[in-house]
Every structure is written in structure tokens, then in C-alpha cells.
């Protein structure tokens, strides 16, 4: 199974994807079955990751999820220590909106020991943090600033710089728990410019917001906070 091929196929077929994000810090393994019953039936992927995760917690979380669902489990790590072989694939993130070398390349180098003999599918991802109306965990942990939503051209150029450097996914992130999600204008402009799949997350809570993001051009939407409660 090739998880990236499945995602890009969706782009060709116009099928919309929905990833539910599980933060291992907030996840109780024995409740995995009950939790997974409550996620929307349209869910196509489970993302697992967070900004601060205690040791082995990601692994335990992935194992618990995998006993309850056959959906692909993709790591979305805030730190290389969260990488675990128990998942199916890994978003190999570079925080391209920021200028902190730790999240542009250092974390990636640190993760190599874990990855070089691993079967995890690696998906190079351009991760672009956009202002969602409040300080988010990515901002706090990475010590970088999000790009204001008014700077559409900078956002588009950052996404294109990602594609030109060989990233296979563009992820527009307004931050978990954002007050407002990435605007339709930004999604549409980025979508127009790139030829790789577009992932959008942060602050999407309602069905209407989901529909707007899909219509604007998101191939995959990521929702976390909405299902944590
Ligand atoms: C965060 O994009 C995801 O990385 C999801 O954000 O928790 O606001 O849904 P929410």
C-alpha cells in the first residue's frame, strides 16, 4: 500500500479526504473504541501527533487506534521523538513559514537514525503556519511567527518554494484551536499555484467550514479540537 499515492489519487479523482487528528497527550488508550465510534463516517485518515508528548505515548496511542480501525494512521509529529514504527506513514514536516533552523532541518536530521531502517512511508511535507487569531502551540514550540492571512502572495510563494524543493504535500495550518481557519481566498490561491495535494487544518469545526475549505480547493482537511471534547 502506498499512502501518498492514495492521497494524490484523490486529487485526480476529486475525492475529498478528511483526517482526524489525535493528540497522544489527550488520548486515553482504553477509550480508543468509543472515540473512534464518534468520528465522522467520512473520515479517511487518522493523524497522530502533538507539540509536547511524553515518551512512548505516541506509540501506545497508535497501537490502541490500530486495534480499533483499519484507517491509515499517519504521524504528524511535533518532535522527532514521536516517530514510531507502529504507524503507517510519516508527514516529514519542514516548517517553511518560519526561520528557525531547528524546524527547517535539524529535527529532520535527528530523525534519520530512527528512519533509516524503518518501513514507515515518508511523505515530505511543506508545513506553513498561518495566523489563526491566537498564539498556537506550533508558534510557541517553534518560536516562529505565523504568516498573516493578508500576505497571500507570501503564502503562495512559500507553498511554491516547498513544491520546488520537492515536498509532496502542502499543509496550510492555522494552528490547533485557531479562532478562524485559513481563508478561502488563501486556499484558492495556493491551490491554483501548486500541482501537489493541499492539506488544510486548524480551527475547522463546522460542516459549513469544511465545505468552504473543500470548495476553495483543499484536498484534505484536518480536524482535531472538534473531536477532542
Ligand atoms: C492542528 O490542523 C490541526 O494541527 C487541527 O486543528 O485542532 O483546530 O482542528 P484543530
UniProtKB/TrEMBL annotation:
Record-level Gene Ontology MF annotations: heptaprenylglyceryl phosphate synthase activity; magnesium ion binding; phosphoglycerol geranylgeranyltransferase activity
Pfam families: PcrB
UniProt keyword terms in alphabetical order: Lipid biosynthesis, Lipid metabolism, Magnesium, Metal-binding, Phospholipid biosynthesis, Phospholipid metabolism, Transferase
EC number(s) recorded for this UniProt protein: 2.5.1.41
Reaction catalysed by this enzyme: sn-glycerol 1-phosphate + (2E,6E,10E)-geranylgeranyl diphosphate = sn-3-O-(geranylgeranyl)glycerol 1-phosphate + diphosphate
Class of enzymatic activity (EC top level): transferase
Record-level GO BP terms: glycerophospholipid biosynthetic process
Binding-site positions, sn-glycerol 1-phosphate: 171-177, 202-203, 224-225
GO cellular component, one term: cytoplasm
Annotated Mg(2+) binding sites: 23, 51
SUPFAM superfamilies, sorted: FMN-linked oxidoreductases (SSF51395)
Cofactor(s) of this protein: Mg(2+)
Similarity annotation: Belongs to the GGGP/HepGP synthase family. Group II subfamily.
Annotated HAMAP family: GGGP_HepGP_synthase
Function: Prenyltransferase that catalyzes the transfer of the geranylgeranyl moiety of geranylgeranyl diphosphate (GGPP) to the C3 hydroxyl of sn-glycerol-1-phosphate (G1P).
Protein name: Geranylgeranylglyceryl phosphate synthase
Organism field: Salegentibacter salegens
Amino acid at each position: 500500500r502506498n499512502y501518498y499515492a492514495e492521497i494524490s489519487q484523490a486529487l485526480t479523482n476529486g475525492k475529498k479526504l478528511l483526517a482526524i487528528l489525535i493528540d497522544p497527550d489527550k488520548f486515553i488508550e482504553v477509550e480508543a473504541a468509543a472515540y473512534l465510534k464518534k468520528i465522522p463516517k467520512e473520515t479517511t485518515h487518522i493523524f497522530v501527533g502533538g507539540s509536547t508528548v511524553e515518551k512512548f505515548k505516541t506509540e501506545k496511542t497508535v497501537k490502541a487506534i490500530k486495534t480499533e480501525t483499519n484507517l491509515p494512521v499517519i504521524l504528524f509529529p511535533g518532535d522527532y521523538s514521536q516517530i514510531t514504527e507502529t504507524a503507517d506513514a510519516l508527514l516529514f514536516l519542514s516548517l517553511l513559514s518560519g526561520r528557525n533552523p531547528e524546524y527547517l532541518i535539524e529535527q529532520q536530521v535527528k530523525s534519520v537514525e530512527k528512519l533509516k531502517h524503518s518501513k514507515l512511508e515518508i511523505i515530505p511535507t511543506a508545513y506553513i503556519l498561518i495566523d489563526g487569531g491566537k498564539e498556537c502551540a506550533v508558534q510557541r514550540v517553534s518560536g516562529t511567527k505565523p504568516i498573516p492571512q493578508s500576505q497571500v502572495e507570501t503564502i503562495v510563494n512559500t507553498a511554491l518554494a516547498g513544491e520546488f524543493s520537492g515536498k509532496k504535500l502542502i499543509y496550510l495550518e492555522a494552528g490547533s484551536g485557531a479562532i478562524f481557519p485559513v481563508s478561502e481566498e488563501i486556499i484558492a490561491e495556493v491551490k491554483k499555484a501548486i500541482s501537489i495535494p493541499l492539506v488544510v487544518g486548524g480551527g475547522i469545526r463546522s460542516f459549513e467550514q469544511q465545505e468552504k475549505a473543500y470548495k476553495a480547493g483543499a484536498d484534505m482537511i484536518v480536524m482535531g479540537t472538534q473531536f477532542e471534547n
